[in-house]
Design a protein that fits this description.
By secondary structure, the chain is of the alpha+beta class. The protein contains 15 helices and twelve strands. It has a single domain, classed as Orthogonal Bundle (Cytochrome p450). The protein has a five-stranded mixed beta sheet with strand order 1-2-3-10-7. The two termini are about 40 Å apart. Keywords: Heme, Iron, Metal-binding, Monooxygenase, Oxidoreductase.
Length: about 400
């Protein structure tokens, strides 16, 4: 395939040869067409950025956010209505920085560090169940999917019995094609009803959890509104469950797909921290990318983008940029520094990245300790992608030990 001009329109998302490999077009776009015109699943037009410097420039610009409910913004999917596209999301732009400030105060390194033993205990419990049932096992169903939702329930003070409900709502609210708009809206309604009752319960009887802290928090003399608390709850669930769940599964698939990687970690578990960062950088199946709505004209890679343009920042493609990394297409578990863009950058970067890193590092440490003989039960090229969600993932990761 040749990409000669910025006038050529590509269908987006781009298809990759396997679940762990990048689309062939990425390298060609970075070199020859870094500002590419694409057609989204909805049929709407957008611009795709694949270079590290360009993606970083747009994500770091505080003027542009992912509020795709605004007039003129492209719809991502035919059904529309992803969490980025609701009027609710668009109308919360002004209050966004306020509750981000409060979340930053609550998502401290100290709080995350304090959660680490609990996360380790949860991982051990889930692995106990896998071991009891015996191999082969699916790492997605057995560990990667349940663990982050257990962590979020603990974080928000939600009872264990409601874990499954939260997992379903999380899936449905990241609709692309897997759920109808009606199912997605129903999930949002059910989640809103649940959270309204849960927030009221925390007001009446606060606990030690993050939600109790936010209910009591005051910013510039003003407490958070019910609506803001609801959106924070939704944001933590959607961002904190799906992304981490999928990344745990992809991390293990990447590390086990080439035996030398797993053996390198078994020989030197102190590499877990840099290995996790390299997993985050090297992930070719990260999903849709971050949409940004450009409200005024800017210049990117020498090209002018008019106000009213929807831009897709593909961090996974940018993380493979040869201009930003030596041996960008090689997975190096010792790579440091590693300034990848996976969590975004600037004022809108991921608030929960410290928690995500802790979950990934803890899961990897527990698996190295508990199941050193772990291996994929099928060839890595047979791993199937999860389809229909904004976030890239794997349907199953069959393993044995």
């Amino acid at each position: 395939m040749s990409i000669e001009s910025s006038e050529q329109v590509l269908d987006y998302p781009l298809r990759a040869p396997t679940a762990l490999e990048p689309p062939e077009e990425w390298a060609k776009l970075r070199q020859g067409c870094p500002v590419a015109h694409v057609r989204l699943p909805s049929g709407d037009s957008a611009v795709l950025l694949t270079r590290y410097s360009d993606v970083r420039q747009v994500l770091a610009d505080p003027r542009f956010t992912r509020q795709l409910g605004k007039d003129g913004a492209a719809k991502l999917s035919e059904e529309g209505g992803s969490v980025f596209e609701t009027e609710e999301a668009a109308s919360l732009t002004e209050g966004h920085e306020r509750w981000r400030r409060l979340l930053h105060k609550s998502f401290t390194a100290k709080r995350v560090q304090a959660m680490q033993p609990r996360i380790e205990a949860m991982a051990d419990q889930l692995i106990d169940d896998m071991v009891r049932q015996g191999p082969p096992a699916d790492l997605v169903a057995g560990l990667a999917f349940p663990l982050p939702v257990w962590v979020i329930c603990e974080l928000l003070g939600i009872p264990d019995i409601d874990r499954d409900k939260l997992a379903f709502w999380s899936n449905a609210m990241l609709n692309m094609s897997q759920y109808t708009r009606q199912e997605m809206e129903q999930a949002q309604v059910e989640f809103a009803q649940y959270m309204t009752a849960h927030i009221a319960a925390k007001r009446a009887a606060p606990g030690e959890d993050l939600l109790s802290e936010l209910v009591a928090a005051v910013d510039d003399g003003h407490p958070l509104t019910e609506r803001e608390l609801m959106m924070i709850g939704q944001g933590i669930l959607v961002a904190g469950h799906e992304t981490t769940s999928n990344t745990i599964a992809k991390m293990m698939a990447m590390l086990l797909s080439e035996r030398s990687r797993w053996e390198q970690l078994l020989a030197d578990p102190s590499l877990v921290r840099t290995a996790v960062e390299e997993v985050l950088r090297f992930d070719a199946n990260a999903g849709f990318g971050l949409p940004r709505f450009i409200t005024e004209e800017i210049e990117v890679s020498g090209q002018k983008l008019a106000g009213g343009t929807t831009v897709i920042c593909n961090m996974a493609a940018a993380n493979r940029d040869e201009q930003a990394y030596e041996r960008a297409d090689t997975m190096d578990l010792t790579r440091s520094p590693n300034p990848h863009l996976t969590f975004g950058v600037g004022p809108h970067s991921c608030v929960g990245q410290a928690l995500a890193r802790t979950e990934l590092q803890t899961t990897l440490n527990v698996l190295l300790r508990r199941l050193p003989t772990l291996e994929l039960a099928i060839p890595s090229e047979q791993l199937a992608r999860r389809e229909g969600l904004l976030i890239g993932g794997l349907e199953r990761v069959p393993v044995r030990w």
